[in-house]
Specification:
The protein has 420 residues and is α/β, with parallel strands linked by helices. The chain has helices spanning 27-39, 63-67, 73-76, 80-84, 134-137, 144-162, 167-173, 183-202, 227-239, 282-285, 332-351, 386-404, 415-418, and strands at 19-23, 47-52, 56-58, 77-79, 89-93, 96-100, 105-108, 111-114, 117-120, 125-126, 175-179, 211-215, 243-245, 250-254, 257-260, 265-267, 270-273, 277-278, 296-297, 303-304, 307-312, 317-318, 364-368, 374-378, 381-384. Helix 6 (144-162) runs antiparallel to helix 7. It binds flavin-adenine dinucleotide.
């Protein structure tokens, strides 16, 4: 992966009132930067600074496909230098360490940067809920690097199993555990369930030699989906050969597997934890008011209470849904819409326009379960089967086009491509 050449970092001198600093170049941060860039004509005094630890934008919704080997890292990591080359957005690669809201500056590994307006879009991290052994022994799937690690671990484990003579050790090597059957867990399970027989074939193992086990504390997979889709999803996963262990809480993990609240033990040397997310700890550590999962509550305009120049968008933001009783579930679709609303409101503040409240809307979701089936909904109409894959491709290519101006992707075993 090419590392973007670092340029001189914006200093700590008095911030120009129109310097917008955007933290995180994920779905929300990148969209906010690109939308602001579109609003602002040339020449303009505004400076847009986008900061991320990576030099590339990650298409996170496609990480399970990369972990299963149907996409390469280069397909899911798009260099920010390419995306931003025709814009006036200044990208800086750095690790954000502390956010000083009152002092209006951000402290990073490359120095401090002062801001006039701040957009916090640092996403989320995996939540381990203090379960002993999870941090040490579980892999996660939140970045391109994670997807590479999972793919490599699965290969290594299968290869090692070929040379293992002890049946118990061999069984542990061929058992792949996934904790958490939400969106990430089920999509990864589907990809691995298709990847394992292919790998087994390459290694002269029987196609069913290795198995994926999906563990979930709730009584069903995809706990946030309607019951009909949960049942459909469970059926598709079972057909793929995945063992479902539902209503079972993981209470301990070690190098050989996990222990459940029931007392049962599941053996498997590879464990991926996708049991929940929380906002990055740097937010609470910076003294910003956060709720229990680390998210920052924001108003309808996506601003932090008491800081009219500070916006939070994407997974890091906590905002009530329209009913006022629940909260908006963090998704890529939500992150992008919030980013567009925040960008508008920033410009509205300068231009004296009326700010627009962010209005959550659920257009639906497409969840792939392997390469040829899935479950989802569009405008509240439930869908299952092959058409979900076509819908997911449409959504993902639409997103890719919106940030890069290009579409691409030919995947291995891609039913949309092969049907042509
Ligand atoms: C495997 C997986 C599959 C998913 N599939 C779907 C799906 O199909 N549909 C859907 O709608 N949603 C999906 N989601 C959820 C979706 O990806 C998130 O809701 C979305 O990425 C949130 O966007 P964001 O901009 O808030 O965060 P992100 O896209 O995660 O961006 C945050 C950025 O901040 C940067 N960052 C964080 N901390 C620091 C720091 N300290 N210093 C520097 N940089 C930092 C990160 O590098 C990252 O680039 C999926 C999530 C996962 C993990």
């Amino acid at each position: 992966m090419t590392i973007h050449e670092l340029t001189e970092f914006p200093g700590t001198d008095a911030a120009p009132s129109k310097r917008v600093v955007i933290l995180g170049a994920g779905y929300a941060g990148l969209r906010c930067a690109q939308t602001l860039d579109k609003y602002l004509g040339e020449p303009d005094a505004t400076e847009i600074v986008l900061i991320d630890r990576y030099s590339y934008h990650q298409i996170i919704t496609e990480l399970p496909v990369a972990a299963g080997g149907r996409l390469g890292s280069g397909d899911v990591a798009v260099p920010l230098a390419d995306l931003l080359k025709k814009s006036k957005v200044r990208f800086e690669q750095a690790e954000i360490q502390t956010i000083d809201l009152r002092g209006k500056r951000v402290i990073t590994t490359r120095g401090d940067v002062a801001f006039g307006v701040l957009v916090i879009a640092v996403g989320s991290v995996t939540a381990f809920y203090g379960v002993p052994g999870l941090v040490e022994h579980a892999l996660t799937l939140k970045s391109v690097e994670d997807a590479e690690v999972i793919n490599a671990r699965v290969r290594q484990s299968m290869e090692a199993a070929v040379h293992e003579s002890d049946p118990a050790a061999r069984a542990a090597m061929l058992s792949f555990l996934i904790g958490g059957a939400g969106l990430t867990g089920v999509e990864l399970a589907g990809e691995l369930a298709e990847f394992l027989p292919t790998l087994a074939g390459e290694l002269d193992l029987p196609p069913t030699a290795a198995r994926v086990t999906l563990i979930e504390a709730a009584p069903s997979v995809l706990p946030s989906m309607p019951p009909r889709l949960q049942a459909k999803g469970a059926g598709i996963l079972t057909e793929l050969g995945i063992r479902l262990v539902l209503g079972s809480k993981v209470i301990e993990a070690d190098s050989e597997g996990v222990r459940l609240a029931s007392g049962d033990r599941l053996v498997g040397r590879t464990l991926v934890w996708s049991g929940g997310i929380m906002a990055p700890p740097i937010l609470a550590q910076s003294g910003i008011p956060t709720v229990r999962n680390g998210q920052i509550p924001v108003d309808r305009f996506l601003r932090v209470s008491g800081f009219p120049d500070v916006y939070v968008v994407g997974d890091s933001a906590r905002i009530q849904d329209e009913s006022g009783h629940g909260i908006v579930e963090p998704t890529a679709q939500v992150a992008v819409k919030q980013a567009e609303a925040a960008a508008y409101n920033i410009v509205a503040g300068w231009e004296g326009w009326k700010p627009r409240p962010y209005s959550p809307s659920d257009k639906g979701q497409a969840i792939s379960l392997g390469s040829s089936s899935g479950v989802g909904s569009i405008f509240h109409v439930s869908l299952a089967g092959r058409k979900v894959i076509a819908l997911k491709r449409l959504i993902e290519e639409g997103y890719r086009y919106s940030v890069t101006g290009r579409v691409r992707l030919t995947r291995k075993q891609d039913p949309v491509e092969s049907a042509k």
